[in-house]
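quick one, 575 residues, struct below
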Amino acid sequence: MQSSGNVGGGRKCFWGFRSLIQRKQVDSVHVRSEGHHQLARKLSVTDLIAIGVGATIGAGVYVLVGTVAREHAGPALTISFLIAGIAAALSAFCYAELACRCPSAGSAYHYSYICVGEGVAWLVGWALILEYTIGGAAVARGITPNLALFFGGVDKLPAILAPHTIPVFGIVVDPCAAVLVLIVTFLLCTGIKESSLVQMIVTSVNVSVMLFIVIAGGYLGFKTGWVGYELPSGYFPFGINGMFAGSAVVFFSYIGFDSVTSTVEEVKNPQRDLPLGIGIALFICCILYMFVSFVITGLVPYYALDPDTPISSVFASYGLHWAVFIITTGAITALFASLLGSLLAQPRILMAMARDGLLPSFFSDINKNTQVPVKSTVTTGIFAAVLAFFMDVSQLAGMVSVGTLFAFTTAAVSVLILRYVPPDEVPLSSSLQESIKSVSLRFGPNIQESDSKNLQNPSGSSENNSRYLHEIGEASIGYPLIQKSISQENQNEQTRRKISAWTITFLCMGVFIFAFAASAQGLSSILRFTVCGVCGALLLCCLIVLTCTDQDDGRHSFGHTGELPHGSASLYGLP
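---
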């Protein structure tokens, strides 16, 4: 009895572990056939660029320029933004490829569920939920002090919007932040096209302000001789290490383009428009960041920049106090666009998780009038408004960064898996596809006739399939070399998949150990260099093996149909 109990427990543990690593075989977008309402496909490339730029350019650039220049990079801040932009572009390419091959809402959660497994997807989904919720609440809280500048200070705000302190608990509540979150939530519930239009207007204002900073600052720089670059310490006062440290900090100013991929089911032509939207949006952000940092660090010495309001203080030092209101307008619009991007993406993450059964089906409902997930949007808005009203969530920004990096990492790994060891929907081998084509050409008219008969008489479909399969079996008996070729090719394919899977596993382990050893402070220098050297050699070997290994170039149907020749799918019993 005890041994049988142990066996039963072992089986439960095995099946529990297997459920964590099982990958999605049927795309969640197929729930359309079950009578659910669809999301409205109304977004174009222009809408995606506006959403991407608006969600990426937050008010951080108005603060990071001073902090990073003073503490890390100095005048080399422009190069730091360039390096961070290149690193962000690599992640953007991963998201663009995954969005094209797996065009379904859910962003990194959806990709990790298809490529890695359910357990990792569950973690990524909640990491994204925390990122968008906490990030949105933090952004809403940041709008209040900037908005107060137009009223002459926080004390001059209307009493109903001004922050108040609860004496008993010592909590500072922010009604203005909560109201802004609720306004954005209502806007998102009206429809995706209306939301993208507002995002486009707000983002245009923000970009115009940044262009004003570049043009006006460039005029002042050429007029005064760029005094910020005439320093005895040179262009790299903190050395190359300081420049790379600055790029690591400003990398998070590029976060936001991933929210574009969550709208994939609302894009008219996702295979074409999503890569263009993500790429152009990231390029615009990188150019604006570099020009703004170049101008600001050139107008005054880097050590004289105000860490809190660097851009406003620079223009004020040249006597342009009126420019402060323009820059403040840019900061407010940047924060509003970032808030809109956060609250736009999260309901679609909830909807995707609900479709897959990881959340209640309540979150997957789509309103038939506005064609947006209204219930998920309202839930997200209420929760974010409560956070923005009661809590100062700026201290949780570290959790947001960790969740974002986790999502980026799984997206990069998913690309490798999708290229070398795609999920269970394995494409047919080339020889079998040729056999299908030959059978399709031979029985083409009969297949079309049988398909039309099957629609009228479904019970006769199995008899027709049996007859055709019998004829194919006779053909394979008459030509045994075809059957041997097919089995040999399948065996080679399985060997290739095993080699690729183990190589990707060792590559991920090597990257993790290398990063841990390089950042561990408690390790001795000899041990650190030894571990880093071994892991570096392992990474190099894995990259060489993957380069020499053929990628899987078959057609898949993770979110769009990879069509077989007409009639072949029904002939072979494929869906």
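DSSP finds 21 helices and two strands in the chain.
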